[in-house]
Amino acid sequence: MFRTKPMMIVIMLLVFALFPVQALAVDYSISDVDINAQVNADGTVDVTESHTYEFEGDFNGITREIVPKDGTSIQKFSGFENGKELNVERDGHLYKVFREGDDETVTIELRYEIQDAVEKFEDGAEFYWPFFDERNESDYEQMTITLFPPAPSENTDFTGYDEAYGAGSLQTDGAVRFEMGQVPEGSNGDIRVVFDAALFPALPQQDGSIREKLAEEKELLEEEAAVFAARQDTGASIGNGLIPAAGALLLALTAWGWNRARKAKQQAKPDAETFFVPKQKMSIPATLYFTKSSILTPAVTAAALMELVRKQNVEQLSEEQFRLIDRNTEFAHEATLIDLLFDKVGDSEYFSIKNLEEYTKNELNHSSYNESITAWQQEVAEEVKQHDLYSKHKGLRWTVGIIGLALFAAAVVFGILDLLPLMFFSLLIGIGFVAFCFYSPITYDGHVIRAEWKQLRTAMEQLDQSQWKQLTQDEKMRAYAYILGADEKSANQKTQSFTNAYSETAFADFGLFYNPVLLTGVFFAATSSTSTSASSTVSATGGGGVGGGGGGSGAF
């Protein structure tokens, strides 16, 4: 019993190590932020922030990062709810305000003082501050910032940057209100306000004019806005013609490709009334890879071993034991399978099911087994590739690929120009073109192979004994191997029924004792016991507003 606590600690450490931190994050949204900044005559600023959070699930509180500008500092930070003071912890520039709850909408009031926040010049006193910047990891659905002078200011001037540009309005007492609306995470929004210099008699005065600099800055911002608006109009004009045309071209290419594939598939259909085993164009594993799935199941591995018996590279001595009689194989993947089963698992001449069970129980062998199976699968895929069963259309693929990349570049431009609908459709259609550049339709010969083996699978479900007897021994072996390899669950009813009906006659001349349930099950167990997986995640953030200041909001 004394081991219980240490074991629990180990389990908890494993949970935190294996699961991403994001999985434990608090689910919330910030529906409203109202910031009131009272600028004082001594150059300090008393800030009151009201943050409304809508939480889903458990939470412990909210966070507020406030990075002061160079030469300033944050003092007297506190948090309240309905007038009740909350506990606050500070870690560098991050403040954690504790308020536990579950599925609630809460409004937290934050109060703090900015010291040395105002610079006085000959013609005015400036407050220039980033209440948030690109370090912010939360969206603000509605944000309002209001700056109040120490006393009514007769000559207030102001501007805003990025999200705050064009959002400011002058109030009757010389205050300035910035109504920004929705502010997305990672955005900047510095505000800059100049009040009457006489309102700050105790502040030391710097040489020079601030209003002239502010006027120049506002003029520059207006010019940039005008240029941006002109570029936006041009971009919208081009995009409104380009995107529909690109979409129409993509639809036309898709229709052409679909119609071409449909015709090739129809022409490749064999005579539905004639039962036959398709001619040997590829090995059975390669045929299964092409006609069924590129994921080669343990049933395919069992069918591949059966193929070696059919080709008389391997002799089956009993249900569980096999003997190698010829290493000269037709395909590289056959040699790889022989190396795995007879050289690694067996004793170079004999291989048995018990050998495989013992081999895969030893964890030291897992890597070797997986490497061999992976090499075998790759060589099967290589055999399929050599038959050129997919059309290349290199010229078409290059063309549509370039169009797709051009649309991605256009999406970047539309995003910069804040043309979000055009950006979205440009990305969407661009993805379609890039996907089409991988267009490799199955050739006519490929459709013939697929159709013939599909017909065989269908016919085998209700095959008459007389039809089966008309097949050659080689045809019976190939048909049987394909059916068993195509079956993902070797113990299902169809396979059992087919095995009972045809296995004896299929292998009469080979002296076989093939048991699909036993052999496929063993390969499945081997694959399961040697499978491993791993994952990892990495993340990083950074940012900064005017004068190195800024910050953002969050929760915990």
TrEMBL record:
Signal peptide range: 1-25
Domain of life: Bacteria
Residues forming coiled coils: none
Keyword Repeat applies: no
Domain DUF2207: 29-195
InterPro entries: DUF2207, YciQ-like_C
Domain Predicted membrane protein YciQ-like C-terminal: 301-490
UniProt keyword terms in alphabetical order: Membrane, Signal, Transmembrane, Transmembrane helix
Spans traversing the lipid bilayer: 241-259, 395-417, 423-444
Name of the protein in question: DUF2207 domain-containing protein
Organism: Planococcus wigleyi
